[in-house]
Design a protein that fits this description.
This protein has about 200 residues and is an alpha+beta fold. The chain contains 4 helices and 9 strands; from the N terminus they run αβββαββββαββα. Strands 1-2-7-9-8-4-5-3-6 form a 9-stranded antiparallel sheet. The relative contact order is 0.18.
């Protein structure tokens, strides 16, 4: 019994240390740049400048299916699966647009890269593109994401935008900031594009 307790204590200590290390590593990971324009009651209004992204398209209709089909492909690209066998640093967040037509998953590429100096993916299903600059509304939530939790926060954001008198366009998108093995301090977000003209009017 004593040996069991000692072994369990060691394993728990190692697990806690690993989670602390993972959380600290996540904080050191480059995060996609944005500017907070305004903080509302239940959401933020942000401006995102252009960013380079590696993206796959999929027929998946759920968070789990899109993640399992897309993450490995994109990870292989940045870990050397390209025509230069080049290692590209992981950044956050991972973008997921889950819808009933064509879903997409994208890795944001480090800010030091542009269209001309990024290596070509070996996998032809991966597209390298520049995102459009945009204003978005963003709502945050913790814990592990799921299709149900994402949909719940889409509904929260929809209602919050309605109360604020702001319209939106395009699909609601999910942003995930943490590796799947991180348990504590997880960060998830749902975003949607806003009309810039409305924001200008709302400021005055």
């Amino acid at each position: 019994m004593k040996i069991f307790l000692i072994t369990a204590s060691i394993l728990i200590s190692l697990f806690v240390l690993f989670q602390i290390y993972t959380t600290m590593s996540t904080h050191k990971t480059e995060t996609q740049a944005y500017q907070v324009i305004r903080v509302e009651k239940n959401f933020e209004i942000r401006y995102y400048p252009v960013a380079m992204m590696a993206m796959i398209s999929s027929t998946s209709k759920s968070y789990r299916d899109l993640g399992s089909s897309g993450f490995g492909k994109l990870a292989k690209y940045i870990f050397g699966g390209n025509d230069e066998k080049k290692q590209i640093a992981m950044t956050s967040p991972v973008h997921m647009d889950i819808n009933d037509t064509t879903s997409t998953m994208a890795f944001v590429l480090p800010s030091g890269y542009n269209q001309d100096d990024l290596p070509k993916p070996n996998d032809s299903s991966i597209a390298i593109r520049a995102s459009e600059p945009e204003f978005v509304a963003a709502v945050k939530f913790g814990g592990f994401a799921s299709t149900d939790r994402i949909n719940k926060h889409i509904a929260i954001l929809q209602e919050s935008l309605k109360e604020a008198g702001l319209s939106h366009h395009g699909n609601f998108r999910f942003l995930g900031y943490n590796p799947p093995y991180q348990i504590f301090g997880r960060r998830n977000e749902v975003i949607v594009a806003l009309n810039e003209r409305e924001l200008n009017l709302a400021k005055h």
